[in-house]
């Protein structure tokens, strides 16, 4: 059954009214009057900005601590509230929501860079329904319009109160909650499948690390150890920034600081030279791999093998992954984290016979494809399931909208 047919069947002719949020709920702010010391070993719990940003419903296993005295007049979070991030670096990510779907007894507060929405008594909207509603593409688009700024975008509470919220069969709360519960049941099934796949991915990653560490743990007398400078050529990529990418967008990935592409540009400077190591920034010491043609930035070292009859490329990649701790120990963290090429060149790696390298790489590649590949394995499956969930979520929560909206 298509999503549109399904929503028609679920609604079964009932009325859906759209009303301004401000007429349905009150908005309250997060913690006020706090300094850095208050967040060191506090006596109370609070929901962090990151908790809201990362979860459609608040993760109560990840609450953080803050000092709050009994004399303070602070807003407390309650079951049924919907919490929002108050700002972000881009408008599209401002006002992300997380519903409070857990019943709890203790006092829980809210991060100061966030705000909460509490529906008025008698408004038939369940928290489980809210967790999906405010994350739909439609609602996210409307919420993004309430944010403004230059370097950081802040949600305007005045504009936020004017966003429109669908009320299913508001004159019959029991019927309304029944329809909401069925929508939640369907969407929960999608998210449960994604959760199961993510758990499986975590298990496989641990399995990969276990076999990698076993296969690459050599006795000194059974293998020769050589410094990277004897086996590879280490060079820095070319200067690049987001402005350059925006001015000349294209199909070639830009690999710079970290494993994920900075963007895509209409130029390449690397072909069949896949191994890199991040040289500066938050991702310093990260091992990168990129097949084919791409653009290597100036915050990424190329690690080019001199003699492929002596050293296998995929073998070296797995070795460097295993040696992350040793590589990061070479980095400096005063100011901007940095990895000096001279220090990296002196890193010693084990070099068994080529046939042994190829056998080890073949085994580890199977685990790597399963845990990291975006074209096969679990990451690809998770991506497809996430898109499927988002598709049905938006269909199931795209209610008919009349020309005139009640205040």
How would you describe what is shown here?
The protein has helices at residues 3-11, 49-54, 127-133, 137-144, 157-160, 173-215, 228-231, 242-247, 313-322, 324-329, 341-345, 354-372, 377-396; strands at 16-20, 25-29, 44-47, 64-66, 82-85, 87-88, 97-99, 108-110, 114-119, 147-149, 153-155, 164-168, 224-227, 232-236, 249-255, 263-265, 270-271, 275-278, 287-289, 293-296, 300-305, 331-332, 338-339, 348-351. The chain is an alpha+beta fold and 407 residues long. It is elongated and about 80 Å long.
Terminal residue distance: 35 Å
Uncertain parts = none
Beta percentage is: 15-25%
SS field, number of helical segments: 13
Query: How would you sum up the major sheet?
Result: 4 strands, antiparallel
The largest sheet has its strands arranged as: 2-9-5-7
Radius of gyration, taken over Cα atoms and rounded to an integer in Å:
26 Å
């Amino acid at each position: 059954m298509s999503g549109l047919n399904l929503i028609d069947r679920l609604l079964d002719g009932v009325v859906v009214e759209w009303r301004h949020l401000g007429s349905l709920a009150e908005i309250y702010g997060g913690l006020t009057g706090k300094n850095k010391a208050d967040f060191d070993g506090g006596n109370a719990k609070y929901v962090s900005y990151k908790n809201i940003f990362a979860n459609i419903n608040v993760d109560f296993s990840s609450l953080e601590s803050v000092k709050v005295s009994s004399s303070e007049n602070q807003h407390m979070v309650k079951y049924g509230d919907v919490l929002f991030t108050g700002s972000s670096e881009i408008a599209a990510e401002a006002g992300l929501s997380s519903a409070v779907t857990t019943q709890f007894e203790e006092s829980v507060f809210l991060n100061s860079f966030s705000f909460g929405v509490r529906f008025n008594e008698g408004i038939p909207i369940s928290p489980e329904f809210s967790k999906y509603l405010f994350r739909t593409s439609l609602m996210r688009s409307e919420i993004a319009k309430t944010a403004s700024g230059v370097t950081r975008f802040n949600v305007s509470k005045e504009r936020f109160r004017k966003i429109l919220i669908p009320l299913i069969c508001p004159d019959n709360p029991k019927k309304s909650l029944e329809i909401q519960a069925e929508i939640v049941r369907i969407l929960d099934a999608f998210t449960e499948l994604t959760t199961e796949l993510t758990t499986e991915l975590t298990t496989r990653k641990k399995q990969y690390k276990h076999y990698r560490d076993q296969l690459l743990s050599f006795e000194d007398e059974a293998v020769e150890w050589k410094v990277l400078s004897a086996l590879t050529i280490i060079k820095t990529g070319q200067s690049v920034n987001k402005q350059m990418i925006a001015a000349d967008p294209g199909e070639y990935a830009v690999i710079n600081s970290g494993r994920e592409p900075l963007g895509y540009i209409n130029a390449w400077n690397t072909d069949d030279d896949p191994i890199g190591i991040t040289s500066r920034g938050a991702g310093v010491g990260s091992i990168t791999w990129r097949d084919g043609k791409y653009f290597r930035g100036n915050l990424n070292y190329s690690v080019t093998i001199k003699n492929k009859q002596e050293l296998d490329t995929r073998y070296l990649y797995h070795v460097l992954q295993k040696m992350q701790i040793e590589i990061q120990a070479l980095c400096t963290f005063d100011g901007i984290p940095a990895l000096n090429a001279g220090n990296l060149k002196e890193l010693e790696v084990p070099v068994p016979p080529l046939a042994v390298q190829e056998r080890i790489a073949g085994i580890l590649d199977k685990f790597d494809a399963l845990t990291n590949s975006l074209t096969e394995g679990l990451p690809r499956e998770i991506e497809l399931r996430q898109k499927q969930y988002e598709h049905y979520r938006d269909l199931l929560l795209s209610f008919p909208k009349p020309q005139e909206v009640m205040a």
